[in-house]
């Protein structure tokens, strides 16, 4: 048993589900629609859980020929066989309205892989009473995903308020000194709030997957 | 009740323990021994859990006058009232021998705040059979802290093997293109293994605190 | 009238006081004690206001031979003829204890040039109730100087609370992704709180001088 | 009273006007026309002062359906209920003709929020007599906003001439070593003229808002 | 004999084949179709080996009027007089499907200049059993070209498994902290596997040419 | 006499010709065709020498309505009243064919302002005999402008061969580690050949203007 | 058989020699003398080839207690059981005298692992006739290691002259724009000479190990 | 005639004087005193002009055993056989007192190689009347070397005033956003004053050598 299927253009990791509880998630950019079709078909046949393709543009999504999938344009996500909501609760909080597409990816991926999600939007620290009003939502979560661009200060503020894991997602929102998200990334990494963790710029996907790992442990 | 004590040079967050399950951890650099003494005394009096001071050099540690503390020179850590080991198991894995001081901080902080720890040292991917031999240690952990410098590839390798949360700590080990740890940091953030999270360069402390947040949820 | 005195090693700008309301402030690094002595003597003779030398190390300060000066070791500041406190009130707020030396320079320069100062220390956003408790101090200020390292989130939080000018001073406190203060600098420049302004890393001096310009206008 | 209105896609900070003397200014990028419409409508109903949306492209502006607004294409600014000119005088100075769009945003925002503005264009230091000829304009201002790209030397030159606050706006004018405005930004931050303050690259808006904070204090 | 032909717009290095065993390879970007036509014609007339033009877009390729050439759209490569496969075996391994265009250039150039090539695709370390299954392919190669983006960890893993030369090609696959390939580049340069060498980002061409130099020595 | 004409959108430096021997050269980007028209008309009326506008795209050039001008599309240069060739000889040398547009700007500007120019193209160090064959051309020049991208090694090679001034122009030719010309820029600044000077990336214009300053001195 | 020995502080890769033809080379920095002693002892007992420790400072070297070793202070290298010189010839060429320590490491490691070495020093391109005079030495080599700092142009020049593999080692020689070796690194990666490969800054060791891989193939 | 002497540790370029009018200048860092002694002895014997060693620390200078040399501690320069002052006049201008060591190197090298020098110190743009007062000194120069750190604005101001060549030397004076001289470097490269040229950070030597090249042409 090799644990993978060699399609020539891809070695599909069919062992992933048994190893990590979830079929391999397909990274869309740079793949032809026919390649996505082939990989998804293989994953659907060789596993039982949800199958996802991320960062898919609408024109590519339209060319992927596999029955039963749904496409979320804001999240740029293709999903087959979404999981039912589980008991692990994730709260996705955004600093500003402009951070929504990244948060949407996080929320959509988390939902598709079986996490229960809530969303709190536009609670940036420039009007900190908006965050304070959301404290109940935050307190009920098992993990908070903070999505923020510019200076990313929301991650520190949330990190100081809650006891649960905080996964910070820097976004490329902003201009000039925002440095395409690098400033938020570095700021979140040096947060004065202890125990925050950080994922790649604009990677709502990574934060959801990190939450999936948390849920795996919480369920033990 | 203000939730803090104003010592003039510091506003000690005496509310932290009730909010986050652990007294404020003191960041040592830039503080005078007398200031550390004052803050630690206040924390010991206003809380019941472990009190820690991080990144303390030996000469400073020697001048902190509070009974009952212990000093770990490798981890540069001062601890009062360490917690008893709990049920949450953290495995600290290092890529090379030179990463040990950062891993030691992670291990020492994790132990002091009540996590059960194991250590796997020197399992870098240049001899990947060494990592394969450690798979049982990794499989039994509730979270893995991966400590690696240079190109930080160990985080990706571990991330692909385990299902539990992986917290990656880039270190400043290496020279030239290692860029004082920035290369490992960026590499870990763009890992092809999904759902890794990352903390600041050389911050064994942050990884242990992130594990503490995980344990808080796992215990719910 | 040339408006300056040419000492060979320096052209002392004796016109500065009439042009900007304050004698030239001397930048200490790279100057010999004898050069500082010469420049200060010239400034004392050609102007009537306070004369300052910044960033002077103790061994250099000890070799500057001009009667009537005082040296502040924390602020690394030499002062002759300090001004009496005026009506313009500046509040210097720091995120952490480790930011104190930079804040001390800001406070000492501001005091020496005739501003009324108050200090609020250690109100970082990881325990945001500490900042909330300082709102009265902030509200009474004509300008707030926020001194913060690491991710510099305090500037955004303060910027959202007060209506007066906020001058943000990033500090080199922190390590790794703090990038010697560059992260705080960039974060403050991209703050979601509108109308903040920023000065150079670790430049408590610049913030005080910016406040001096504000006072000049407020007094019109 | 929560101090905000939750529209789902945005938490409108309706408390901002009482806290800071001006309704929340809306950041346009990343928002749908319908979202801008909703937020502006809410702000107009819950406050009395000017309502602004920044960085709005013409095609988006055309789709915002709220009566009474005007659109300035150069400044990319939407304004409702502009304030009458107040007594605080701001002079906007540009180094070159190519810096005009950023200066235009600064001037338009400043006018809309009740500051009196004058403009001095194209006074870069390569022909410094042009700046010298503008000294009267500068001397009558309560604050000078200096807008300059490339090496940004105009900020230093102006900073040495006037006693009032100088707010420097680096622009992305130039190429190669201009580094999209980073060079001007860094240069302004290290200016040899004391007490300059700096805002984000190309952020004419931030400079105007900083001037608003100055005016608030000058009026006390 | 000058060793070159001066076409005005180019000095064609007609001596290259005798000096390095291969005619000059033409770098396509920035050259007009007529210029490419002229240079290729000259090279075909003055040498006997394969003539290549790299990084040619389809519209440019269509305008190059020299009989006998073939165009590979994925590799963006024009070839005249390809060499027969020699005894030196190169294995091109990719971390992910998205790295294929760069690997395709490497494979196509290597084939055209007379190296024997095999390809192993999609063996990234997130599912390391896929790499382990390819060990035979790797073991039979005289050199391995590793093509990987994101964190580039595949280079370290391969470098630890094989004894032959490993040429690492970082790709610009990925986003955010992938920094357009800089992260993979730096990571490969600091690999814990000894004796790897690295070429420019996305330069499948350079890796193939480095392999050509290896073959030259192996044939001695 | 103010020494400039204030057109509102520009302060034309009419004193420049008497001060520096050449009318102000107009920087095209960011200027409206009508603005260019106005400035050029003013310069033609107030000075006697050549009038140039740089970096003008064809569509803008077509809208500039001033009789007597010529437009060079490769150099993106508009010229009125070009000077007759003088005795100062400038040799423009390029490393590769792709560097030509930048070299063309240098050559066109130099010619327009009265320098005698020769061009040597495609003499990069990968085939150093091509450079050696050009030594006579180089030896007869009063200054050499070296235009090179990628690693910019041609500047060092030329700098070691000739005794006259060498002005190095880094170009953005190349990809990946070429860093849009930054690599060539830094390389030229640290050349082991003593006494090279460097101008901005892709600035053929600056090099020509630097040569104009040389000619001014040589003619004394 | 696990293929490694677990010493607690290190997992010694005892399988390396059979896998790659050379025992694991020990990276010295960050290791205690006792740790080096333990690892070296283990390697000597479990393998038959040369055992090396790199980057060892003299005071550490003096504390390593294993008989039979020699220490090269310039190369900072400890060696036990050096190999006899083999048939593969490596030429180490340096651009300047200041690059010698890095070249010395390369030469010493290469010699110790059984390569035949020659050295050509101080052939930088500022006096290119010095390089031309060394062409015979270069032509007889099976591989050339080029060690150069500052702008690193020597790599391009050598790459254009020889047909064999060229391994470029950037050094941190130089100041300012040399950027601690980053400039040479980037320059070498973008060399106009095709097929160069590059290793980490100051890593004479890596270049020697890359040559070892070449020799392994040449011997097949 | 090889044109160089091979001393083993150095290939002394004895042809340099005939090629470029000046013996090779020795770069001191990284060379042993005995090596400097050997190279200088060779240069004195094989040429007739001045022999210089740059960047020599006092303890090294004291160990160089060649009769007839002088050592300038501020300039860190060793000189044998200085040239008599020629007719080419160089003015070295500094922005601040702290820039003096770099300017001193420039002045000392220029004097030693036969240029006539004047110095104008401390004319930074914060008090621009100081520069205006120096216009006569500037006007009489054949070339101006501008030495400035921080934001380097002096180069632009001087560039706009004089017609002769301006060689800008950025210095590492300043802190934080001064970025060790990178800010001044980039600012000078993007100066709005046309035709400036720039040399490496802190390289007073390079500027003097560039002036030497100018003098060579002026003397034709």
Description of the molecule:
- 8 copies of one chain form a homooctamer.
- Chain A has 220 residues and is an alpha/beta fold.
- Chain A has 2 domains: 4-80, no CATH class; 89-218, Rossmann fold (3-Layer(aba) Sandwich).
- Chain A has helices at residues 16-20, 33-46, 58-61, 100-112, 129-132, 135-139, 153-161, 182-189, 204-218, and strands at residues 5-6, 11-12, 26-27, 51-54, 70-72, 77-80, 89-94, 116-120, 143-148, 166-170, 197-198.
- Chain A has a 5-stranded parallel β-sheet, sandwiched between helices. Chain A has a 4-stranded mixed β-sheet with strand order 3-4-6-5, sandwiched between helices.
- Chains in contact: A-B, A-C, A-D, A-E, B-C, B-E, B-G, C-D, C-H, D-F, D-H, E-F, E-G, F-G, F-H, G-H.
- At the C-D interface, strand 11 and helix 9 of C face strand 11 and helix 9 of D.
């Amino acid at each position: 048993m090799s644990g993978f299927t060699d399609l020539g253009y891809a070695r599909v990791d069919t062992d992933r589900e048994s190893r990590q509880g979830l079929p391999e998630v397909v990274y869309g950019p740079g793949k032809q629609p026919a390649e996505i079709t082939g990989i998804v078909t293989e994953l659907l046949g060789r596993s039982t859980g949800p199958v996802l393709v991320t960062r898919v543009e609408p024109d590519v999504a339209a060319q992927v020929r596999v029955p039963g999938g749904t496409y979320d344009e804001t999240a740029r996500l293709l999903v087959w066989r979404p999981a039912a909501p589980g008991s692990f609760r994730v709260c996705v909080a955004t600093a500003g309205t402009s951070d929504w597409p990244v948060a949407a990816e996080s929320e959509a991926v988390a939902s598709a892989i079986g996490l229960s999600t809530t969303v709190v939007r536009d609670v940036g620290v420039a009007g900190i009473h908006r965050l304070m009003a959301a404290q109940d939502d935050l307190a009920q979560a098992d993990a908070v995903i903070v999505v923020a661009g510019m200076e990313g200060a929301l991650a520190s503020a949330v990190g100081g308020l809650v006891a649960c894991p905080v996964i910070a997602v820097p976004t490329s929102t902003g201009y000039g000194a925002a440095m395409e998200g690098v400033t938020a990334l570095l700021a979140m990494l040096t947060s004065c709030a202890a125990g925050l963790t950080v994922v790649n710029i604009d990677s709502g996907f990574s934060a959801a997957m990190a939450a999936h790992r948390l849920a795996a442990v919480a369920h033990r």
